[in-house]
Structures are given as structure tokens and as C-alpha cells.
């Protein structure tokens, strides 16, 4: 069992609505992202996370997203192992997201 906290789609929507300071990272592949992303999300495919980690600030808060929550959990665990303390996974991924999408 992972020790990564999960955030629900509703909780994420509330955080976006209140302009809470965090970064959403979408780890899906390019063709998946073409179907829409959560507003403000940064797209870093899962396979690119190890090389991108050096460009991320370990003091900031991150919410990781994928299609169902499995790949983003892997990315969350990788960040945690590399010194990131404020990492959350979107429970159920984009399948659970009913909010706005940008293309």
C-alpha cells in the first residue's frame, strides 16, 4: 500500500476554484492528452518524469494525474522517493474528473 495521499476530483475542483497554490502534472501520453486536460495542468508523460524531476521544485505541492490513477501513483511515488514531500495523486484519474477540460 502506498503512503501517497489521494485527492478526489471534487477536492481538486475546490482547490482550483479557490486558486490554491499547487501544480497539476498530467502524466498521460500525448494521444491521451489530446482528449483534454485539467485547466492549468502541465503535461509530462510518465516516461519523462525522471528527467523532468530536476526542473521541479521539491518545496511546492504537486497533484499527479493520469487516466485511472495508477500511472500517476507511480509518478507520485517517484517524486516522494526523490525528496518531494507535498505530492498527491488524483484518485480515479481522469476517469473520475467531471470538471472543465482544455484542449
UniProtKB/TrEMBL annotation:
Please report the stretch or stretches of sequence annotated as the Rhodanese domain: 18-103
Q: What protein name applies here?
A: Rhodanese-like domain-containing protein
Q: Which Gene3D superfamilies match?
A: Rhodanese-like domain (3.40.250.10)
**Protein origin, superkingdom:** Bacteria
PANTHER family the record matches: FAD-DEPENDENT OXIDOREDUCTASE, SULFURTRANSFERASE YTWF-RELATED
Q: Which SUPFAM superfamilies match?
A: Rhodanese/Cell cycle control phosphatase
Under InterPro entries, the record lists: GlpE_sulfurtransferase, Rhodanese-like_dom, Rhodanese-like_dom_sf
A matching Pfam family? Rhodanese
Q: Which stretches are annotated as coiled coil?
A: none
Lineage of producing organism? Bacteria, Bacillati, Bacillota, Bacilli, Bacillales
Amino acid at each position: 500500500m502506498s503512503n501517497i495521499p489521494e485527492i478526489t476530483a471534487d477536492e481538486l475542483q475546490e482547490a482550483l476554484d479557490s486558486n490554491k497554490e499547487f501544480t497539476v502534472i498530467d502524466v498521460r501520453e500525448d494521444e491521451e492528452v489530446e482528449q483534454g486536460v485539467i485547466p492549468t495542468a502541465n503535461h509530462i508523460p510518465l516516461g519523462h518524469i525522471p528527467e523532468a524531476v530536476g526542473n521541479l521544485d521539491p518545496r511546492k505541492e504537486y497533484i499527479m494525474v493520469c487516466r485511472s490513477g495508477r500511472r500517476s501513483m507511480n509518478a507520485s511515488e517517484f517524486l516522494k522517493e526523490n525528496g518531494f514531500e507535498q505530492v498527491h495523486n488524483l484518485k480515479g484519474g481522469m476517469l473520475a474528473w467531471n470538471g472543465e477540460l482544455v484542449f
